[in-house]
Amino acid sequence: MAWSRDEMARRAALELEDGFYVNLGIGIPTLVANYIPENIDVTLQSENGMLGMGPFPFDDEVDADLINAGKQTITELRRTSYFSSADSFAMIRGGHIDLSILGAMEVSESGDIANWMIPGKLVKGMGGAMDLVAGVKRVVVIMDHANKAGQSKLLKACSLPLTGQACVDRIITTLGVFDVTPDGLVLIELAPEVSLDLVAQQTEAKYSVSDTLLKHEAA
Amino acid sequence: MKKVFPDAKAALDGLVFDGMTVMSGGFGLCGIPENSIAALHATGVKDLTVISNNCGVDGFGLGVLLDAKQIKKMVSSYVGENKEFERQYLAGELELEFNPQGTLAERIRAGGAGIPGFYTKTGVGTLIAEGKEARQFNGETYILETGLTADVSIIKAWKADPQGNLIFRKTARNFNPMMATAGKVTIAEVEEIVELGSFDPDHIHTPGIFVQRLFVGSFEKRIEQRTVRQRETA
Questions:
Q1: How far apart are alpha carbons B195 and B203 in whole angstroms?
Q2: Contact B176, B31 (CB under 8 A)
Q3: What is the pTM for the complete model shown?
C-alpha cells in the first residue's frame, strides 16, 4: 500500500538528526513537524525571519506580528530568535541550515527540481525555494510519485522550468525512497506492499535498486 | 533636523513624483507600512516601480495601489494573493520581475551598503540566470546580481525614538531593516515614539542614520492565514 501524506511525513521525520536546524516547506513538509521524535532536538527555521518556530497559537494568543513563511499565525518558543530577511537568507544561502524538506512538481534523476512555475499558467513566484535548494546542506523532497494524470514525477529530465540544478539528495514518494547519487538514482526503500514492478511501471527516471533495499511493513 | 512628522501625508510631502521607485517593507501583510501606502495612494502618483517581497491582497496593503493602477512594475519574490494583480498582469498592464526571496533581500542590503553587485549560487541553471554574468569560485558557478536602491523607502517598525532609531517586533522585521538602508529617503511608520534615551543603545535594530522621516501610524494589522489550535478540554 502506497504511503499517505502523513506516512510520507512520518518517514521524512527520520531524516532529522539531533541538533539540526531545519526549514520545512509549505504543504506536506509542514506535517513533518508533527512527527519529530521526542529524543531529538531540532530547531525549525522560517525564512521570513525566525529560528525556533513553535506550534499554532491558541485563539487568544494570535499575534499579527508573528507568522511563518506560509503566512500562518504561529508561536515562539524559549529558544526563538528573530532577524531580518537578509540574515535569514544568510543562514540559508550560507549553508548554515542542515536540512530542507520541500515539495516538488518534478525531480530529475540528476537531482534537478522543478516546483515554482508551469508555463502558460499564472506564476506566483519562487519565494525562497531557489535559495533553499541552492544553499541548504541537504535537500529532501516529499512528493506524490505520479501526478493527477498518473504520469511519473520522477523524470530523466524535468520538463518544467527548474528551481535548482543537481541539488536534491533524497526523494520520498508515495511508493518509496530514492537517493540521488553520483551513479544515478537508487531506490533504497519501498512503502509497505509496494512491489518493484509497480515502481518500475510508474517511474520514468532511470534508477537502480539498492542491494540493501528496505521493505517497510504495513503499520 | 527634526525627523518626526505628524502623519503619513506630511512625511511624504515633497518626495512623490510619477515614475518613482518605492521600496515597501513587509512579508505578506506582516510588518507593512499601511499608513504610507494609503497616503501614497491618496497622492494619485502614477507609474510606480515597487520593490516589495509581495504585493498585498485585494483592497489592502499594496493591493490599494494596484487597484488604482498606480503601479507600473513590481519587483517581488511571490505575488498573486490578489485577483486584480492577476488581471492586470495577464492583460499586460503590469510589469513583473521575479527575484528569489534571498536574492531580493541581498540586493536591497547590497544597494543600501554601497555594493553594486554580488555573486550568488541561487538560481544557477534556472531562468533566473539567463542573461546574467556567471563566474566560477572554488569550482562552483555563481551568477552576478545587482544592488537595489529606491527614491523612497516606506517601512514599518514597532518603536522609534525621535532620532529615528528603530526597534522591530517579531517577524514584522523581515525586509524593513534593509529597505531602511536602501532608500534615498526612508520614511518609518511606528506604533510608538518613545522619549530619547529610553532605548538601550545595544538593543537598537536600525540606527537612526538610515531614517529621515518618522511618524506614528494607526495599524489594522490584517492577518492572511489565521491558524489556531484548540485547547484540550478536561
A1: 15
A2: yes
A3: 0.97
